[in-house]
Structures are given as structure tokens and as C-alpha cells.
Specification:
With 770 residues, the protein is of the alpha+beta class. The protein contains 29 helices and 14 strands. The protein has a four-stranded antiparallel β-sheet. It has a four-stranded antiparallel β-sheet with strand order 2-7-4-5.
Amino acid sequence: MAESLVLNGNSSITKGTVIFEKGQPLQSTALILKGRVIVQGEGVRMTIGSGNFLGMCDVWKKEHSFTYVALDDLVLFGLPMENEKQAALLLEQKPQYRGLLVTSLNFFYHDVFRVFGKLKTETEKVAKFVQQTYSRYQKLAEGAGLTAEKIAAMERLLNQRMENYSLSEKITYFIQCSKIPIEAQKNYYGASAYVAQKQFEEQCAVLPQLVAGCRYYSDWLTRYFRIMIMDEKNLFSLVGRMALGVRRSGQNDSELSVMLDHILEQINNAETLLLEYAGVNLHLDRQRMEETYFALLSDDTGSLDAFDQEDLKVLDHSVQQILDYAEASDETAEKFAAAVEAFLACVDKFARTPEVTALRKELVKYFFEIYERACKKSFQDANPPLAVKLFLRYGYVSEELLTEEELRTLLTLPDSREEETTCRVYTMSEWLREIYEGRKNPSKDEFDTDYEETIRKQVHEKKLTKTEGDDAFHDAAKRLHFEVENLLSYADRILSGNISTFVPVMCSEGIYTKLESAVVTSAIINKIVNRVEKIDYSIFYRERMVAYEEVGLNRFTVTGRYTPEFIIFPVYGRKGLMWQDIEGRKKETHGRILLPSFMEQNLEAELLKMLAYFRWEKCRTEMGAQWNNYRYPSLTAEYTDYLQFFKKNNDLSPEKREKVKAQLTQCGNRHKDVFAKDYADWVLREATGAMKLNRVAREILFTYCPLAPQIAEGLLAQNAYRDAARRYMIEKGKREKEINQVLHRFEKAGMDLPEEVEQTRRFVLDLQGA
């Protein structure tokens, strides 16, 4: 519309026309000469009339903060306006605009403040009602001998607090200014360009705070609204389900019926308030809600049985719910929704035809942008809509892309997190929050370059100034974007196992197993990891050099345990990725292993391969440039030498050499992959006494991946294992002697043993479980 606005002249605008759109670059503004305009911003919806300016409050921001829609047929006077300098020139050269502009903005403040006050008052009332009703519901359940189901979102909100949003004194000043007679205001501000300019500048500077306050309360009201009716477990359905249970048991349910009436009243009021004052449309399925309500009133138990099942209606229009939540631009939302619609219509969604390939690329193009926006918003929202939760967790986009059985399975899957685990496991949204809030550093990209190196390179290439580079290190939004662009969007494709036909959205045609048996959770991951660590007990230990001059010790190797962290990606996949074995350049940090939300292949076998890769990469990091140099003995150096020169190895029979050759061929001559296969045999078979490896591989593994003492003791009676363990036992004896000497030094000096030395002692002397 802005393109057709006549500048420095009148324009007739038809009712319903979007005049300026939020986020649109500021190129012009307009004065309303006739008619009314709907102003829609973040948490604000109101109507203004003639004498008001559209867009002038954003001359410093240089993009529109509001969307303006014609409520009536309008007459507007267009003004060319791109920045604050043009605004200052207007006030300097056009005295007739001074009083009008500043006065209209005072009234604009008054109108926004009215929205703020209404949202604040009503949100506080709703919060009090929901908390009291939830508490009463639990007491009634206890009194009726029933189990009160808990609402997870409500439990989280009970641990939070809706603060009283404080406003600047300047806002109060502008509100008071609006109460002065209009002509007095116009005459005062119109008399001085300087006074008008100063007032206008302050008005523009403080307005975002008032709008943010409206957004704050509309967000809280939205959370409580979802708890009342829209979440998969909501107050309305739980109270209704309890009323059904009480009625069927022959007890009096009158208080519960009254409670339902009050909940329904609050739902209606909150929905109207959000729509009329905040412009938030939550797409409530009112027909479904009212059918359930009247079924309760009429004692229609057939309809009431719907309470006994999870209601999938909450997932209706999931694509739109996700796009609304992510606040994607109109162009992005329109193109993504169209791509999903076209994808739904595809007979073969994984066809390699040019048309379907282009469609999948279109989905990929917008998916990660929307994911980043939705994820970022969820950091401030304890209770996103269910569709958004499933989108962030599994890559779910549309209820039409999955069967009803698959949808119900998604709603009943276990939480991915558990407390007290060996390895920390993150969902993708949890991981991105760690990055955004600075608790974790962004991951390396596909070229093994981390975030800090990338920023330094951009500064070196003059793409960023030194100041911009320094700011970028701590810029939460840029850190988040780097992780989405370089880890999520790249690794998501690899994990799926479908490089050429990859699509990030979850759909039935791409699912080949039962979701409940394929889901990847913290409990499953840690169960497998614990089983491996009980066999290969040193897998997560790293060595570093320290000095204790106070006891005359200038060089001593201590050992620390650093388990890898697992990140679960929102994708159905076939493989895992050992992404990095340390964070940045520090060796005393946790590695990162990536897994899909659903693993089509055997998860234990895939995890075992990832842990073998972790072993290999950990050794490479510790050895640096000498990782494959046989003169510096290590796991990778000896395995590389063994595989490079197996044909000349006299310890291998001709038959064993042929097997090694076949292994190399099968693994594409990738030494790490050969090691991973041997490592799986070492953990799963050799540890039980079933000899699968040749003597050379067995000796290397026994030396660098030693079996837990209780397992090794049972195997050393066999000659093959005794020979393999010989070198390991010699090295272990030397290490025990060294640690005992260190202990003696501290004891002699009368000093307490440092924690890192104590941990090393326990590790070397096999006392980890003591």
C-alpha cells in the first residue's frame, strides 16, 4: 500500500487496506484527515482517528513498529519520511505540524496506556482465578478420593512470578500532557521548533517501553488462557473429567459444575480481551468446548467419554499456530504454508523429480528460519502451544502429515530428560537456549571452525570492525543464529540419513518404525553409556600435566572425567554424529554427540560406534600433530600403523591378513571405521571371553581401552588375554608406583591431597566405585 500513497498530497484509501506493515522499512508516513485506523503492534490493538499520524513514532527506528489497517474508507495526507533528520526538518520548516504532531502523540500515548492498564488489570485477575481454581480442584479431588492430574505448565508458572511491570516517569508525564486542552497543547508546542523537537524525540524514545509492557501482560494472559483451555492438559478438561468421575460414582458434582461455569466465563472474557486489546487470536475451537460443556449439563455420558481421551483438536491448524507463534514475516509465512500444502498433496514425497526436489528445498529454506524464531521466543515462554512444543522437539509441522495413531503417540512419549545421569542430554531447543544465554559456546561448523575463529576471521578480512567483532562474541542472537545455521541445518540432514531427499518436517511417509520404540531419550542413552563404561572404564578420562612446587613436584599427570554431551535433533533419522570431542580448544571440556529424536536403526549399535569415534578423536586431540606417528605410541598411532602395514605383520596369519584387508575394503580404507567395528567386538564380545579380534588388535585395545578390573581378572586365565594384557599391566604398574610416590610427598609435607590428585589415585588404583 505504501507504494500507492500520494506524497505531499491526499490519498483515498479503501476500508480494509493495510497502509503500513510492522517491520516494513520507513519510507513515508501519513496524517489521517478522515476515517479511523486500526493500530496493531506487539501486544497492542487499538483504533485511532483523524488528526493522528501513522508511522511518525518510528523515525529513529527506521522501520514500522505497528501495522495500520483502514477501519473505514480513509483520506490520508502522505509525507515522505525515512529518518529523524527529515522529521526535524519538517518541524523546523512547517510550524503547522509542530503542535499537531506532538499533541497527537500525547493522545497516542494515552490510548496505548489505556490498553496497558486494561491488560494489566485483567491479567492479574485471571492469574488469581486460575491459581485459586487449580488449588481448589486439587482439594476437591482429594476429598472425592480421586487422583488430581497435574498441569505441567501450571506447575511451572507457580514457581514463577508475574512481576509488576514498571513504567518510566516520562510516560506518566505524556499521559498528563494529553489531559491538557487540545488547543493549549497545539499552541504551546507550535510556538517553538526546539520545544516540539525535544518533546517529539522523548516521545519516540520511550514509547517502545510502554508497548513492551502491553506485550508483557498479553504474553502472561496468553499463558493462562492456554492453561484454562488450549493445552493438551487444561483446567477446563481436568475439571470436566473430574465432574464426570464424581457423577459416575454417585457423588454430588455441583461445586465442580459451578467451577466449570466460572472457567468458561473467564475463557470467554480472556479470549475477547486478547483479541480486542492485544490483537492475539488463539484460534480456540469454541464449538468443541461448548459441546463438551452442554454434554456435562445434560448428563450425556456418551459425549463425556471424550474426556477420557487426549484431545487432538488442540493440534488443528498446526502450521498456522507455529507461524503465528514464530511471528514470521508475511512473506515467509505465506511461502512456508504454501510449501507445506503442496507437500501434503504430493503422492511420492521423496520422489527425485525436479518438481518434488524443488519443493523439499523450499521447505528446508524456511524451516530453520522459523525454527530459530520460535525457539528464541520459547526462551521467554514457559508454556508454548502444544503444536510449537512438538515442532521444536520433533520437527512436527502439520497434523495432516501424520496418522492419528502417530499423533497420539507423540502426545504420550516420555520426557527426554532425567536427573542424575552419566551424560547430560539436551533437546535441540534446550541446547540452543544454553547457547543463547551464554552457558555453552557455539559448536564448530562442518569445516571444524568454531564461532570465535569465525568472528576473528571476519575481522581480519575487514568484514567486521574490531568493535563489531568484540560485540559479536557476546551477542546472544548472533550466537544462536550461528548454531542454527552451522549445526542444526547441516547436521539435521546428515542425521536423517537421506542426504539427497532430505526434508526437515515430520511425515508418515518417512517413518518406517513404531515411534514409541524408536524414540531417543536421556534414559535410553544413559543406560547404554553406563553399560559401555562398566566395560571400558577409562573411556571418559583425560590426562593433563600439573605441577605442585610446594612438594617439589614439577611435572605430574592428573586424570579427570569428562563425559560427552548428547544433543537430540528434531528429526527422524538413521544415524548419529560424533561432532566434536572437546569444546573449543580446552581439553578439559565435554564433547558433543548428535542423535535424531527417533532412531530407525539399532540405537545401541549406533551409540557404540559414536563412542568408538569419541575414543579415536579424543586420542587425536591429545596427541596433536603426532596422532599417527608410531614413534609416539598412542591408540591412533598404533592402529594406523597396524592397518597400514598389516601385510608385513608376522603376528598375523595369512587368513587374518585377508580379514583385515576385507575390513579395510568394507570401511573404504577409513581407519577410524575399522577401529569402530573392532571396538564394538571388544565391548560386546571380547569382554565376555568370545575372541573375535586378532592378537594385534586385541593387544592395542587392551593397552588403550583396558577392560574394567573385575572383567579383566576373569579373562586373564586365558593365554590370549594374558599376552594382550602384558604391556598394559607393565604400564599400569609404573603408574601405580608413580602415584604412590606422589601420595608419599604430600603425606610427608603434612598437606591434604588435592582433589584432582585424589581422583587420579582412585582411577589408577581402580577404586572408582569405592
